[in-house]
Here is the input.
Amino acid sequence: MKRICVLGSTGSIGVQGLKVIYENKDRFKVSVLTCNKNIHLLREQIILHKPEAVVVADEEGGRALRKEFPGLEVLISIEGLIEAVSSAHDMILNGIVGIAGLLPTYYGLKNKNSVALANKEALVTGGHIIMELSQKTGASIIPVDSEHSAIFQCLEGNKQTYVKRLILTASGGPFLGKSLKELSKVTVKEALNHPKWSMGRKITIDSATLMNKGLEIIEARWLFNQDYKNIDVVIHKESIVHSMVEFIDGSILGQMGKPDMRVPISYALSYPERLASFEDGPDFLKEGSSLSFSQPDYDTFKCLDLARQAGEMGGSYPVALNGANEVLVHRFLKGEIPFLGIQEGVERALSNHKGVRNPKLEEILKIDEEVRNSI
Ligand code: NAD
Ligand code: MG
Here is the structure.
């Protein structure tokens, strides 16, 4: 029995992770569930999965749960979250959104817990610290992000020196093919209407701006220890090939599957084994099925290159990029700024930022806060 601590259990990754765990009750058991403030859903999850403890970021919600479940350990706030990830688990599934996922990843690894990582922002902001910590403690990071899971699978059994480049695929999001003029008028509802994936609101907007792919370039740089020049992006609107690796002999391996996050989640939780699945893979003989690849429109979707530039500049630049993006996406979702205001604001934040080399954990959190306040 693997005891799994599910961070962000009420979110899109968390809910799908719990499905995988429940469908494999003979192998997996929930140790801890955590959420920000969706007490309503957490309550249902407590009843079904019977965790040993839960953590609620929101104090009021946490206190309400303590009354309701007197026998259950209910921890509160970021301190409670750190306490929970610091105890022993067989695996932590990190499905928290944003830089809020950085500290629990850090303390989980520090206490020798392996992490199935969906939270890309932890690597974007603190990749140098997180990867070093994983090496030092021997606690592994298994990617959950579908592109990185694909690359991780393609790299199995190959030496690092065999790798020529990584090819990240991108669906292109709901606005593929649109011009800047058209993008200036798009609505929140249109931006949330992703053609292939059903995900949380923040990452769905990131997919529409292509910032998501930019963050994934930085994520790949850290996970697979590759130079930025060896990480390419191609638009693949069918979302069947989840990413590829080109090797020095000219051979390219790709991993394919339906766009269903339960596949990479299941792989990360069971690695190095594979679990029998609930569904078949894609049917290539289905009428009308074809796979296409094309160049991203870098001039229109500026976030993709802004993220690459921030990654290449290194140090605290990705922290500034991420902090600005989190604030601007939130504002767009509230209807306060137009869609293009996201990329314009991120560009401004990056050019105003005075980078710090090799920032420590406390510096990252401080810079993140400063950037947020300056937006
Ligand atoms: P979501 O918004 O659906 O869920 C986020 C979860 O995090 C919720 O349970 C919420 O309660 C919790 N949370 C939010 N803020 C918190 C805070 N300050 N402290 C503690 N908990 C907090 O997000 P999601 O779509 O599930 O994405 C989660 C992460 O996984 C993101 O980093 C995203 O980029 C990545 N990811 C998601 C998908 C997907 O299909 N949803 C795919 C690939 C990668
Ligand atoms: Mg992805």
Q: What stands out?
A: The chain has three domains: 2-143, 146-172+213-259+280-296, 176-209+299-375. The longest helix spans residues 120-137. The domain at 176-209+299-375 is CATH 1.10.1740.10 (Rna Polymerase Sigma Factor; Chain: A). The pocket of nicotinamide-adenine-dinucleotide (ligand 1) is lined by residues 8-14, 35-36, 38, 57, 95-97, 100, 118-121, 145, 197, 199-200, 202-203, 261 (CB under 6 Å).
